[in-house]
Amino acid sequence: MIERINHTCFFCSEPIIEKKTLEHIIPNSLLGKLGIKEQTVTSKDEIQYSRIKVPAHSKCNSEFGSFYEDTIIKLLDNPEQLYENLKQEEIGIMIQYGPDQSVTQLISTWLSKIYYGLFYNDSLKSQDDDWKNISKEIVASENFKIIQTSYQNNHGFCLPSSLFVFKTTNVNFDLRTFLYPQGILIKIKSIVLVLVIADGFLTKNYIQGINLTNLREYLEKVEQEQPDFPVHNLALAEILALRLAIKKSPSFIVSNNEILNMSFSTGVNNPQEYYKVDEEEINEYRTQILNEFGIQN
Predict the structure, then answer these.
(1) CA distance 126 to 135
(2) Dihedral through CA 190, CA 193, CA 194, CA 199, nearest 10?
(3) pLDDT by residue (tens digit) across 23-62?
(4) Phi and psi angles of residue 276, each rounded to the nearest 5 degrees, phi first
(5) Which helix (H) or strand (E) holds 110?
(6) Contact 53, 23 (CB under 8 A)
């Protein structure tokens, strides 16, 4: 199994017959700009960011790198503009889903690639058997298989996923992943990006408009009152706690031509009441998540 996945392209899932290339999950140029090439990711294993790589066809590697990551690095060079661009694109939820040139789609694709790439790397290299098995399950999941198929068909490298952006005065780099619900946070300079992986926009459906404005204002207030408090982790906890409290499960119909997001389809007579979230349940989930982060709220 290890030998097979070690010679399988991370992007398209096809065997690598030629000499394989190794794709940096976070581009080396970005690691250099952030000054974190030699820093380590600490989960079950410690590994330097610069050593997190996955096998890929040279063609897939170069295509993804040139199309997405060069653009991403340019976007991250101007975090204030990136923040405003993402805010402007927050309105609306797509039913028919496919790749486009929006900043939201580019960032969502990039974060999805980092998320699955981290687990792909660990499925190959982790010395912890339990963690290796967990990583293998994520790599073998139906969602990731759909994403790879979508990439093969030129329909992008992520499923409908809720993206959120926040600002912070703390400019230290941070990266966190969450197993369930699958989520990723990355904090670069003054910007915080949170993606709820393949949730069919269910989370975004609850946190948008005035609710999202209120969350941003709340985080800003907490940071003003407690400058050392890691508000980016609080943002992640709020979003994941909500996702855990949403009863509905995402659903997709996939063909060679499109991905349809069926996550909002329902057979119940009173969907607004049936899928109403419980605030007490959200509070409990938030506390559990913050405790996992070693944070007392």
Answers:
(1) 9
(2) 160
(3) 888 888 888 877 777 777 756 667 888 888 999 998 888 8
(4) -65, 135
(5) helix 103-125
(6) yes
Cβ(158)–Cβ(108) under 8 Å? Answer: yes
The residues, ordered by sequence, that sit 6+ positions from 2 with a Cβ below 8 Å of its Cβ are 124
Q: Which residues contact 78 (CB under 8 A, 6 or more apart)?
A: none
Between 11-20, 158-167, 181-190, 267-276, the lowest mean confidence (pLDDT) is in: 267-276
In what helix (H) or strand (E) does residue 165 lie, and over which residues does it extend? strand 162-167
Tokens 């559990």 sit on residue? 288
Q: Give the whole-angstrom CA distance, residue 241 versus residue 202.
A: 13
**Cα–Cα separations (whole angstroms), residue 283 to 162, 192, 231:** 20, 22, 16
Give the tokens for residue 286: 């938030």
Contact 86, 198 (CB under 8 A): no
Beta bridge pairs of residue 48: 40
Please report, for residues 24, 32, 44, 71, 114, the alpha-carbon distance to residue 28 in angstroms, rounded to integers and kept in the order given: 7, 6, 23, 14, 13
Residues linked to residue 47 through DSSP beta bridges, in sequence order: 41
Q: 238: closest CA among 277, 271, 270? A: 277
Contact 207, 215 (CB under 8 A): yes
Give Cα 245 to chain centroid, integer Å.
19
